[in-house]
Amino acid sequence: MDHHATTPLDPRVLAVMMPFLQDHFANPSSQHPAGQAIAAKIELARDQVAQVLNAEPRDILFTSGATESINLGLLGAARHDREKGHHIITTETEHPAVLDCCAQLEQEGFAITRLPVNTHGQLDLEQLQSAIRDETILVSVMYANHEIGTIQDIAAIGAITRQRKITLLCDATQAATTEPLDVQALNVDLLALSGHKLYGPKGVGLLYLRRKKPRIRLQPMTFGGGQEQGLRSGTLNAPGILGLAEACRIAHAERDTTHRLLRGLHDRLQTQLRQIAPDCLFNGHPSNKIPGNLSVSFPGVDGKQLLDQLPGIALSMGSACTSALPQPSTVLRAIGLSTDLARGTLRFGLGRGNTPAEIDRVCERIQETLSA
Ligand SMILES: Cc1ncc(COP(=O)(O)O)c(C=O)c1O
């Protein structure tokens, strides 16, 4: 029930990776035939990913995951364009990968505007328009939220940033398996994905970097062998990259099926939770959200205690807890939840492998625990 944290490796992905973990281990930077054979496979993987994103192959940079992609995109673009301006806009509900990069840039002298969201977690486009200044160089908005699932209107945000000649970075990590990822339709300039959130391997991800119309430039963060067009030095993770490409292919081919499956499981879960706790509140946008997400607040319930009584069920709270003092998450605070309600919040992240029987079992266990 915690697929927002990570997803299992699809056996089809593992099958693609195995030969490159076992026999074909050459370094793709090597000039001998074994190395060049792997390099050719990586270029095929790049083509495959580019097709899924409707991008040019050279616009795809392989990284170690979304965190690295966001760091490279956000820090790299900001530092490169510093002469053009020093203002960056983001939202209060981004993942720490974005928020902490912004905090770092603030220390380097950039001005950061963190826009609020409404009670559903959506960004107001007029507020975005009015936050833009002459010196704004970059906007970073996530596609789908990792706690409440709300989807932002990235295409509309991109239309605004494109018109104002501002770079748009989109953290699409949680949207990867259920939402369209066409970077042209979305009007994005930079887009981050993580392999392990789309049934691929951990330790691999990608950054889409627009090279034309407009051309976005980055300052590199790692220096060395000059891999990935000099922007991300270091020996390429060949098995991971080939696995990521296969996971992207499957996600794309099965997007509608996955969406329907997760929507069905979501609705089953929501209906049962409503029966168990009629006063519970569902967070995030009621319809405009990723279908696998259900964030639910139980008034008067301590979420941590509830989770402790559900051993064997992998679930998260909507809030990040320090050991003694649970602090409500920034996301739940941003949508206006009280501390108490945030403390009684659980985050379900449903995935392709979940079954209706599992939903029923989890609901039974929650009912038993709440009525004990
Ligand atoms: C929205 C979002 N962005 C970025 C990340 C970071 O991904 P990774 O840990 O794979 O680098 C996550 C992971 O939880 C996420 O949910």
The major beta sheet can be summarized as: 7 strands, mixed
Bound molecules: pyridoxal-5'-phosphate
Helix-strand makeup class: alpha/beta
Output the number of helix runs.
Answer: 13
Distance between the termini: 22 Å
Q: CATH topology of the largest domain, what is it called?
A: Aspartate Aminotransferase, domain 2
Q: Low-confidence segments, ≥5 residues, pLDDT <50?
A: none
CATH class of the largest domain: Alpha Beta
Number of strands: 11
Order of strands in the sheet with most strands: 1-7-6-5-4-2-3
Radius of gyration: 21 Å
Strand content: 5-15%
Overview of the structural elements:
It is a single chain. The strands form 2 sheets. This protein has a 7-stranded mixed sheet, with helices on both faces. The protein is built from 13 helices and 11 strands. Helix 6 links the parallel strand 4 and strand 5. Pyridoxal-5'-phosphate binds next to helix 3.
Topology at a glance:
Blueprint (H helix, E strand, L loop, with lengths): L10 H12 L10 H21 L6 E4 L2 H15 L6 E5 L4 H12 L3 E5 L9 H7 L4 E7 L11 H10 L3 E5 L11 H4 L3 E5 L10 E5 L28 H16 L1 H22 L4 E3 L9 E5 L5 H6 L7 E2 L12 H5 L4 H5 L1 E5 L6 H16 L1
Parallel strand pairs: 2-3, 2-4, 4-5, 5-6
Antiparallel strand pairs: 1-7, 6-7, 8-9, 9-11, 10-11
Helix pairs in contact: 1-8, 2-8, 3-4, 9-13
The chain binds pyridoxal-5'-phosphate.
